[in-house]
Sequence to fold (264 residues):
Amino acid sequence: MLTFALTIVRHGETQYNRDKLLQGQGIDTPLSDTGHQQAAAAGRYLKDLHFTNVFVSNLQRAVQVCVSEIILGNNLHSSATEMILDPLLRERGFGVAEGRPKEHLKNMANAAGQACRDYTPPGGETLEQVKTRFKKFLKSLYQRMLEEHGSSDQCSASSSGPSEPEQPVIAGLASDGVHDVPVHALIVSHGAFIRVSVRHLVEDLQGCLPAGLKMNQVFSPCPNTGISRFIITLHREESNPRAARIQCVFINRKDHLDDVKNSD
Fold:
């Protein structure tokens, strides 16, 4: 088996975020000045961590978080790590609602008699389609983790069966949960996509939650450059690697934004 950490970061603020306009996939705007400040703050917060693998949505607002001043630019240990741009990590597509105010989407949902979160505008992606994208990404991620980091020593050490893992120590630090986990993957993606992904890891895959974390916090919107972390233990199976255990360390952490002005 192989245990690795997975840290998920949302991109920084764009002008569309500030103006409460939907971006989705068809509108690809850069970070605002505040977004750059948020991303730089996230980079400083994560600078002492070693990311062995980095996966980024190929939309520019996510790429900027990794490349410009930011996570890999400021990171002390990961500047040479290959950054893989993956369209599977793109934001949810909002179809005809892209470029329009979020209030317009609410009005469309109300007219259709649906909750805004569950409503799919014409030409947009359903939540189930977004989940399917994330599941496809997870499958390729698991395979890559095992191919690159699943040494024979690790597998033989676990051949007698998994022992009950210790709960990760959570002290409010950037290194929470990863002190003894040398394999660490980073994802940079988008708010709606992250919300669906976290829900899948916790609900569908039965991820264990830290004490005191309520479900409404799990499913709350991720703030710009919000950070979530999971510890995943994989079974090595030839055709379909699967997670034997998923432990949530924290969700939507934003401590690094305390000194950034105008960060909603």
About this structure: The longest helix spans residues 127-149. Residues 152-163 have pLDDT under 50 and may be disordered. The chain is about 35% helix and 15% strand. Residues 19 and 101 are 8 Å apart (CA to CA).
